[in-house]
Amino acid sequence: MYIAMNRFKVAPGSEAEFEELWTSRDTHLKEVPGFVEFHLLKGPKKEDHVLYSSHTIWSDYEAFEGWTKSEAFRAAHRNAGNGTRSLYLGHPEFEGFEVIQTVK
């Protein structure tokens, strides 16, 4: 299993707009082989930002890599950044993880 995360520092007061942007968009993830699930996470509030993370789970790294090269990825990210730069402080920070242990 592979987990792909993007961390976003969202400007204070922009939380509702950020959440609406993410929850209303068509991700195209369900079309991609190896996709398991997606989460949008809201983290702690700091003085200058609120931390968010998008978190996708994939069957393996190859499935994630296939997503990044797919037409579904291009469609999902086609309008990324259009008019939303004021929501973020800096660029999203990507982190990828190979799952070593899962406890259910």
UniProtKB/TrEMBL annotation:
Domain of life (superkingdom): Bacteria
Positions of the ABM domain: 2-94
Record PROSITE patterns: ABM (PS51725)
InterPro entries on file: ABM_dom, Dimeric_a/b-barrel, Heme-degrading_MO
Designated name of the protein: Heme oxygenase (Staphylobilin-producing) 2
Keywords: Oxidoreductase
Pfam families reported for this sequence: ABM
An annotated Gene Ontology molecular function: oxidoreductase activity
EC number: 1.14.99.48
Enzyme class, first EC level, given as a word: oxidoreductase
